[in-house]
């Protein structure tokens, strides 16, 4: 890309991304901390992805996504997944009207811009599949007819790491459909002090003001697609993804000839799928857009790598025996690979 073209693109990207700062400020007015979660929510929206969140109860997961919907004036629905939930409870069904003797479609709660699938692993596979189909196809079939979900469309699914009895874990192949998997923990002491002071006054209105619109998000998607991605950055993304695949590291680029990654062969059972490279590219472009840049830098890739790869790497029994997790392996891969 020529310098004049890049400068022109830079100016347009800066203008198109101007809504990001007030949006994050408004969310921060209500949500204390959880900056990473908020960043990933906005990033997934403009990159057309979805999130899987794992965290203990009471960490503002529901409030964060509800606040985002309010700040965008977007439709929002929350679905509490339970073992007796049916696919029709999610997508909708045909209702028979006895007076007119006709059927009419009653759409389900997935027909919203932002959907919270709370404790997704508490529902059986049939219900999980219905939601994942909506995520992938952006449509549902009711009585043989296709119905498009409203755009933009974001699903934030949560999993509770405790109380695993009676749950239905998402299969690895299905988890791969989420752009990000984020693990969130407790706030620090000062953040928790602010939470107590803010939330212990029921009379305070904690609803978000609409400071941006869905049109801003749809426009952002178009400009994210135009973000410049150099071939060296693409090679870097490919090297990261291929590094997770046992027995295939001879396909790394020549730049990575000195990378010492053979130790991973015994620690990783299955590596990341091609979808990981696609998602990492989209997320890196979205990160650049949110910073008001018209081009991707290596730090954009590094900043999203953990949340993109965490749920796409299956560790071996040896890694589990050594009490290793995917996050530590991803960090070692990023340390070993040369940055362009």
CATH architectural grouping of the largest domain:
3-Layer(aba) Sandwich
Number of domains: 2
What characterizes the major β-sheet? Answer: 5 strands, parallel
**Could you please say which CATH topology of the largest domain applies here?**
Rossmann fold
* Mean pLDDT over the residues: 87
CATH class of the largest domain reads Alpha Beta
| Biggest sheet: strand arrangement | 2-5-8-1-9
How far apart are the termini? 18 Å
Q: Classify the helix fraction into a percent range.
A: 40-55%
Shape: globular
| Helix and strand element order | HHHEHEHEEEHEEEHEHHHEHHEHH
Structural class designation: alpha/beta
The H-level CATH homologous superfamily of the largest domain, spelled out, is: P-loop containing nucleotide triphosphate hydrolases
Topology of this structure?
Elements: H1 3-16, H2 20-30, H3 35-47, E1 51-54, H4 61-72, E2 76-80, H5 87-91, E3 92-97, E4 102-107, E5 114-118, H6 125-137, E6 139-142, E7 145-148, E8 154-159, H7 172-175, E9 180-183, H8 189-199, H9 214-226, H10 231-243, E10 268-270, H11 274-290, H12 298-309, E11 314-315, H13 317-321, H14 326-336
Tell me about this structure.
With 340 residues, this protein is α/β, with parallel strands linked by helices. The protein has two domains: 20-201, Rossmann fold (3-Layer(aba) Sandwich); 227-336, Magnesium chelatase subunit I, C-Terminal domain (Helicase, Ruva Protein, domain 3), CATH 1.10.8. The protein has 14 helices and eleven strands. It has helices at 3-16, 20-30, 35-47, 61-72, 87-91, 125-137, 172-175, 189-199, 214-226, 231-243, 274-290, 298-309, 317-321, 326-336; strands spanning 51-54, 76-80, 92-97, 102-107, 114-118, 139-142, 145-148, 154-159, 180-183, 268-270, 314-315. The strands form four sheets. Strands 2-5-8-1-9 form a five-stranded parallel β-sheet. The protein has a two-stranded antiparallel sheet with strand order 3-4. Helix 3 crosses helix 11, helix 10 (231-243) packs across helix 11 and helix 10 packs parallel to helix 12. The model has no long low-confidence stretch (mean pLDDT 87).
